[in-house]
Amino acid sequence: MIEPSTVVDRLRRTTDTIVGEAELLERLASGRPLRIKYGVDCTAPDLHLGHAVNLWMMRQLQDLGHQVVFLLGDLTTRVGDPTGRSETRPLLTPEEIEANAQSFVEQVSIVLRTDPSVFEVRRNSEWYDGMRVAELLGLFGQVTQAQLMARDMFRERVAAGREIAVHELVYPVLQGYDSFAMRSDLTIVGSDQLFNEQLGRHFQQRLGAPPQAVITTTITPGTDGRAKQSKSLKNYVALTDTPRDKFGKLMSIPDSLVESYARVYTELPLDTVAALGSAAAGGGPPARDAKLRLAAAVVTRYHGAGTARTELDAFTRTFTDRNQPTDIPEVLVGTPGATVLDLLQAARPTDTKSSLRRLIRQGAVTVNGIRVDDPTKTVELTTDVVLKSGPRTWHRLRLS
Amino acid sequence: MIEPSTVVDRLRRTTDTIVGEAELLERLASGRPLRIKYGVDCTAPDLHLGHAVNLWMMRQLQDLGHQVVFLLGDLTTRVGDPTGRSETRPLLTPEEIEANAQSFVEQVSIVLRTDPSVFEVRRNSEWYDGMRVAELLGLFGQVTQAQLMARDMFRERVAAGREIAVHELVYPVLQGYDSFAMRSDLTIVGSDQLFNEQLGRHFQQRLGAPPQAVITTTITPGTDGRAKQSKSLKNYVALTDTPRDKFGKLMSIPDSLVESYARVYTELPLDTVAALGSAAAGGGPPARDAKLRLAAAVVTRYHGAGTARTELDAFTRTFTDRNQPTDIPEVLVGTPGATVLDLLQAARPTDTKSSLRRLIRQGAVTVNGIRVDDPTKTVELTTDVVLKSGPRTWHRLRLS
């Protein structure tokens, strides 16, 4: 058996905090397979590299024989938790929930093993559908209003003068009770879920069960450098993205993100990670090379080394090969973030706006080798950007 | 049919506010029997004159053919609402709840008619036992945390740094939904219940039903002049008190309460009420006479004019008849509230404390004709007090 402390140490690379570490070590030492709670709501999933950080940690534990309990919060989705969203989430139909749940399992299977010996799918409707109102109210008696309102998200809402519906307020109680009902030993979550999962420990203790350990993972900014990877901003690399898209999106991140991305999204040795970080900090061709290395490492993780090499070649060729002239004209741009249409206008000042829009619509425009369909898409000029419009026209855009 | 406005006007004598008066008038005009929600929790009842104010209003409506729906909050009692109490209420067993419910029905039948044509007993477990968690959470979605926290009692608790358990927080939601589930047209409550019953209107409207009207009633201080009639202070006249105790307790109230007691606890004409108030304000024998009139009117209401006359005679005899000398020695007392033992010591300074205690324990001591067993009982000297100790010893105690 691998030493419990070694198991935990291997997780540390992408760990932010561990609550209940002593209990976790003890349980690992017992030799019994742990039950790892992976709770999700059943809204339409689009898992990205950020989510995958947690999945890879669970995968490590699966490889040691531990059990991931994939808990679909179908009941709680019907209720709705608006974590980090300004608006209360729309209620879903049972059919939508079911479809989303299936999509979820498919996506997690990109990382997790799904054989029944290490993967179990549960739904929290299993315990909530049979629960009586009096019993639920009994659970409510185990927690105070002040405890719930201590949650960051609630405090932010109150500070912003926004409302908290009571079903939202009690959502953490349900999520917490889930841990008891499914006998969770450990859960690995984003730090925004720490509050709810600590309530899980609270309920387990109140109800006479051993409390789960909670590991929160490192949060990494989106590909645009913004703090949150968000569906509306599409600023992330999705697990279902093609290898080409993954590669291209990673090539578009700010240099300053290379090191942290390499640390949490790849298995590159940590000294390599540090070296990539230093190279990226200097800018220019070494930064470009560091990013290529990062992109290749991520694609390797998800699609294998062969695919990664293919994508690396394709990308390099697009930018440096026979098709692309060596003497691309440079265009200086005044603002660090502009739309594709703006950039195209800067590069081709004599063309009309409508003809440029048509070019984009025809699929004749690429940014760093990636085709762009939306004239209003923003391009960040954190490093130079190569803009191709039509079969033989290149421009290198540089922040002035 | 009596004019709806006349019906409402008759209730006004003991009404504080009416929410939804227009709807109430309209419903009365429809001629259909109204469903009047009389919701109670199932803790051990000891109904007093304050509760009876509401019951008499319902009785008026019963006499016009309207239906009182006596709603036992058995589910909500299992949950516990700590209205106005510093401590969370202990949870009761189903047997205790059932016993309390029976006692409740017995006590309300002192005022209400209980024939099925105008009286119906329901339990809120009828709808909550069959309700699923998801449905309850749906109700929670109809109300915000801020709405619930607006409740006076919650704000007071927060201000005092005390906790609010979540089951307590959601209690008003349950009480509010009750109004929908039982199709309440009207409820008559103390002002401390206005918040919860307005939530009832909210749910009825949200769920597509016409909202109940809410009448809140005049709150009258306890027999000791304190704001609240409370079980722990025993400062009220209970409906189950004997006629003698009712009479005696009413004779012990401060003069300043005579007018308001006469207004809300009797059916004396309002000009008589005003006259009693003036008489009481002057003190001395006219105040005493006003109080006798009040006590007789209350006893008449509950036990009939014959019994009231008997009690009036008995009381008067005790204080003024052959047994009681006309030249009772006066004792001046320095503080307006003292224990029976203190007063006895002041009256009989040569006796030992232990012998005085023994007198009390033997049942040989009366205060204003009422036997006292507890040496530590406080006596208010708002008017003179006649203390009898042993068969032939009287003292008139007067505040110096």
UniProtKB/TrEMBL annotation, chains A, B:
GO terms for cellular component: cytosol. It comes from the Bacteria. It catalyses: tRNA(Tyr) + L-tyrosine + ATP = L-tyrosyl-tRNA(Tyr) + AMP + diphosphate + H(+). Residues 343-382 form the RNA-binding S4 domain. One of its GO terms (molecular function) is tyrosine-tRNA ligase activity. GO terms for biological process: tyrosyl-tRNA aminoacylation. Transmembrane segments: none annotated. Keywords: Aminoacyl-tRNA synthetase, ATP-binding, Ligase, Nucleotide-binding, Protein biosynthesis, RNA-binding. PROSITE patterns: S4 (PS50889). CDD domains: S4. Its EC number is 6.1.1.1. Belongs to the class-I aminoacyl-tRNA synthetase family. This is Tyrosine--tRNA ligase.
